[in-house]
Design a protein that fits this description.
The chain is α+β, with helices and mostly antiparallel strands and 281 residues long. Helix content is 19%, strand content 26%. The protein is elongated and about 115 Å long.
Length: 281
């Protein structure tokens, strides 16, 4: 009976760990999910003036066909970034043919990252009202070799532009919506190593003359509003954090091993106690 009670307790422990594993994994990835909230209603025109958005935010912008639109968002180690964009095209009566739009993602070193899935380049017919683009980047690694082009933690840039169109359509007004989200890959892809996040040293667009005096720091800061803030640090930090679902499976494996040991002992011991054979007369 003692062996059965021990086995029952081990089974209860395993069930509790398995039940709480999805919740713990969700807590470890606060950026996961598709819900979005209000974001900025503008976009930058270059890397240095890229508009910062948070994970899960939807940014909007009104521009002219032919403009380059830039946004930036943070991505931590162990996350898989996904960027989605919707371009609301000008009226069909004002267009003169098909247009091709492209969505590019760059890391903090301005290295263009390949898309593992999604429609990165989409061609819209003349009568289309909108086009949808998406790009899923490879998993962000905490470190990489100097020669590799691996995605690293830090700021990521999004560029949206038209790459092919009739010349008469240049300058037509359009609007764009961009959402950047991430999902955590969990402990199955956890690895060691840690690098400083690749983020701008200054706020995007901010410059300072070499002979600027210290009095500039105490000025009213009227120009501050024209500078776009750099990408904020994710809620869980730039690293993958101490939590990993490997902890859950390690404990579950230990509990199952203990259960197997208790069961083996109960089977080998048998129901009766050991008795010596009777002595020969």
């Amino acid at each position: 009976m003692r062996a059965l009670r021990t086995a029952g307790a081990a089974f209860a422990l395993c069930a509790a760990l398995l039940a709480t594993a999805p919740t713990a994994a969700a807590d470890a990835s606060p950026s996961a999910g598709t819900d979005s909230h209000g974001g900025p209603a503008e976009a930058g025109t270059g890397f240095r003036t890229a508009t910062a958005i948070e994970q899960g935010q939807t940014a909007t912008a009104a521009a002219s066909v032919g403009d380059y639109l830039y946004w930036m968002f943070p991505a931590a180690a162990g996350q898989v970034p996904t960027v989605k964009a919707t371009v609301k095209l000008p009226e069909a009566q004002s267009r003169h043919g098909r247009t091709t739009w492209q969505l590019d993602v760059y890391d903090g070193l301005r290295r263009r990252q390949a898309c593992t899935s999604g429609s990165q380049t989409v061609t819209a017919a003349q009568d289309d009202a909108s086009v949808d683009l998406s790009c899923r980047v490879r998993r962000v690694r905490p470190w990489s070799e100097a020669w590799a082009n691996e995605p690293l933690p830090g700021s990521y840039y999004v560029r949206l532009t038209v790459v092919n169109l009739p010349e008469q359509d240049l300058g037509l007004a359009f609007t764009a919506e961009v959402t950047a989200s991430t999902r955590d890959t969990g402990g199955a892809h956890a690895e060691g190593g840690e690098l400083e996040p690749l983020t701008p040293a200054l706020r995007a667009g901010a410059t300072q003359a070499p002979d600027a005096s210290e009095s500039a720091d105490s000025s009213d800061g009227d120009d501050e509003s024209s500078n776009t803030a750099s990408a904020a640090e994710p809620d869980g930090g730039w690293g993958s954090g101490w939590w990993s679902d490997r902890w859950v499976w390690t404990v579950v494996g230990g509990a199952l091993g203990a259960l197997a040991g208790v069961g083996g002992y109960a089977l080998s011991r048998g129901r009766g106690s050991f008795r010596r054979p009777p002595a020969a007369e």
